Amino acid sequence: MSTNNNNNNAAPSGAADFRDVATAHTPFRAGPLALRIVIALVVVDFGWIVAANENFGWPVVAQYFFDPTVLSGLYVSLGLTVIAMILGVALGLVIAIARMSSDKLASSFASLFIWFFRGTPLLVQLIFWYNMSTLFPAISISLPFGPTLISWDTNSVITPMTAAIVGLALNEAAYMAEVIRGGLLSVDRGQTETAEAFGMTKARALRRIIIPQAMRSIVPPTGNQLISMIKATSIVSVIAMADLLYSVQSIYNRTFEIIPMLLVAVLWYLLITSVLNIGQGYIEAYYGRSDRRNGATPQLAAVTEEASH
Number of helices (H) and strands (E), helices first, in the chain? Predict the structure, then answer.
């Protein structure tokens, strides 16, 4: 009886061999596992070499990591980053809108601004602003071809802090203008047309409809710009600005512990950029939440709701 049942359940001759997928499993691949093991061994070995090398001066790094001079320079770098990014994003938005304007004068001025500040090195710009007094000993407000209303000494206005903020902000504005312009162009033109059809002004449509949708394309490169700005603040040390790099330089000029002090700056920069990377991930997830919704329906609903206000 059992022999007959086995014969009935057997696949007919020439038929495909069907197998139960419940018993299927991913085949073991030795190649990727061996590659992971090799990479892990190389990383661990390199880490051990660096940690055990006394020439790195890890006790000195630990000693000066929270030194008041280093922390003071860190606060200066962070402050410069925040101020320059805020000014750069605000001015970059204006430049981007002007660049996309149908007004030839505004578009030409924006293009010229971007061309100049992206085409010249940031270091040169900072030195130029710091030495502004050699070109203009005084900064004055006057009527065209008329008398001077008020005047200031340039050296009293263009301090190392002022030169650093102006140089970093203007340079950042040129890059952010292109980032924002690319984000605005990524939004379907139909969104603007739909908003205008509901009676919204161009300014309101830009502020409430276009820019929020463009943020998905603007946030990632803006995060990269923010991280670049953190590192770019190290350049202000050439104009005697007491940032993080300048602070560690002032210490190793006294102690001659060059490598350990540079490692202090490197570790702080890595720590800050790591935190910024995490924050950027959360912001990208926030603005990318609409990808989990249904296509254009929420967009049209957003325009309708906004137009009703």
Answer: 14, 2
